[in-house]
């Protein structure tokens, strides 16, 4: 399991999403074959990351939530905090700021951010939440603070690039194209300086749109071509769909097994209930019969009835109740 996860992580850093997903699926199959589900929460988190990187936030969120449910059965505070952090960020992208804020609060309750990376992510989430609430002024202020923090603390450059990406997006929403352009180029420079172009292809698309709208078609075409080059290099739709199909088939087979197990459990429970009913009926019937056998025969001959008539009545009673057992 750990080997598959490790290879998947390497491919994620290379933006080989099909390869990453393939390895995470193999890890998932191996993990779920064990009753302890080793690394189950991590695997679901990582599969969620793949889908979110490809802008399929709903599927990614679904995997994050499955990871949280695994954490309930197999506690892992570090993974749980990462899942809550990811859920807070991705639910802002789907427009659910109330849920995003709840996840952020839950994440902060687990433990306060300590490392530079944790401090950055906490601040970035706060900026994303403000942006999601359309409070663009405070959002820009917080995101700018986080972009500068990432640069000054010398954490991985992808963090600075992420803050710049959110910044130019916020400025676009505000209608401030000039400020947006500043952070587009800062994001692009961080990407190109550190070999992270495949992580930030959307900045080239944004630059293309900016120059097309501002009367510079040559530069617009240049950035548009760069955008398509990067996108095509990291995304083979046929390959990725083939990998997704493996995941679908695995989930379908698993669901079929679960349904079959439910039917089997249902049949077994009904069989047990039927046996219990038969036992109960036999016990009740036995008590009734025992009562009749044990009940002493008290047949009196009323006054005014002849002895011969009385004997006839007694024989009738004996025929109904049966003769007393000679064994007592």
Shape: elongated
Largest sheet: none
| Percentage beta strand | under 5%
User: What is the number of helices?
Assistant: 14
- Mean pLDDT over all positions: 83
Q: Note the run of SSEs as H and E.
A: HHHHHHHHHHHHHH
Q: Termini distance?
A: 72 Å
**Unreliable parts:** 295-299, 314-328
What is the oligomer described by this structure?
Answer: single chain
Secondary-structure class: mainly alpha
Number of beta-strand segments? 0
The share of residues in helices is: over 70%
Cα-atom Rg, whole angstroms? 37 Å
Brief descriptors of the model:
328 residues, 0% strand, elongated, disordered C terminus
Q: How is this structure best summarized?
A:
The protein has 328 residues and is mainly alpha-helical.
Can you walk me through this structure?
With 328 residues, the chain is mainly α. Helix 2 packs antiparallel against helix 3. The radius of gyration is 37 Å and the shape is elongated. The C terminus is likely disordered.
SSE order and pairing:
Layout (H helix, E strand, L loop, with lengths): L1 H12 L3 H16 L7 H14 L3 H17 L3 H17 L3 H14 L5 H17 L3 H18 L3 H18 L2 H17 L8 H12 L3 H18 L2 H58 L12 H15 L7
